[in-house]
Design brief:
elongated; alpha+beta; single chain; 11 helices; 3-stranded mixed β-sheet; about 200 residues
Length: about 200
C-alpha cells in the first residue's frame, strides 16, 4: 500500500486533517502513522491528528473534531458569523452540562457549559477561514450566550458584541426574541438593545 497516497486522499476528504480513527478505517494503523511521523512524512498537530507536511492546519476544524459535544460560541462565533474581524486570542466553545471536555481542549479553549435543552438552539455549521464547515451558533444564539456570560466576558467585550449585532444588517430580532425567551434573558437583552437600536 502507498501510505502517503492514501493519507493524501484522506486529508483531501477531511479538510486536511488525518485522524487515527479515519486512517484505521483505511487500513493504516496508529503504529504506521507514528512511524511516518518520525520519518517526517506527516506532521502531528495534536494526539490522534496529523497533517501532510505542506498543509497548513485549520485550527478551528482540528478543535471541532476533538469532541462531538462542542459548538463554537461567544467571540469565536462572532468571528465565524462575520460580524467581528478580530480572531479571538483563545477560541470559545460551548458544551452541554454533563459532557466535560478533555484537559487538553480546556487548556486551549475557553469552555462554557449550558443546559442540555439549550445546546441545539441556533446550532448551525459555518465555514472557517480555510473553508471547512464547523459547528457554530448563529448570530442570535451567540448574542443570547454573550448576555448570559456577560459577567465572565468583561463589559467592554460584551458591549462591543451587542453593538456589532445591533449594526448587523443580517440580524433577526424575532429569532433573537424567541431564543432569549427560551433562555430566560429576554428582559436583560431588551434593556441593552433599547439603547443600541
Amino acid at each position: 500500500m502507498d501510505f502517503i497516497a492514501e493519507l493524501t486522499a484522506i486529508a483531501k476528504e477531511n479538510g486536511g486533517i488525518i485522524e487515527n480513527k479515519v486512517a484505521a478505517g483505511h487500513g493504516i494503523s496508529r503504529a504506521m502513522l507514528s512511524k511516518l511521523y518520525k520519518k517526517g512524512k506527516i506532521n502531528r498537530i495534536k494526539t490522534g491528528q496529523y497533517i501532510l507536511p505542506d498543509d497548513i492546519e485549520d485550527e478551528l476544524l482540528s478543535i471541532s473534531k476533538r469532541s462531538e459535544w462542542i459548538v463554537f460560541s461567544h467571540e469565536t462565533a462572532l468571528f465565524l458569523n462575520g460580524i467581528s474581524d478580530r480572531t479571538p486570542f483563545k477560541h470559545t466553545v460551548t458544551a452541554p452540562i454533563g459532557h466535560g471536555q478533555s484537559a487538553v481542549l480546556s487548556s486551549e479553549c475557553k469552555v462554557y457549559y449550558i443546559k442540555a435543552d439549550w445546546f441545539d438552539i441556533g446550532r448551525t455549521e459555518l465555514k472557517t477561514p480555510a473553508g471547512n464547515l464547523v459547528p457554530c451558533y448563529d448570530l442570535e444564539k451567540t448574542v443570547c450566550d454573550i448576555v448570559r456570560s456577560r459577567n465572565k466576558m468583561g463589559t467592554e467585550t460584551f458591549l462591543a458584541a451587542l453593538k456589532l449585532y445591533a449594526d448587523c444588517p443580517r440580524k433577526d430580532l424575532n429569532k433573537l426574541n424567541d431564543y432569549a425567551t427560551q433562555m430566560h434573558v429576554a428582559n436583560i437583552l431588551r434593556r441593552y438593545l433599547e439603547v443600541l437600536l
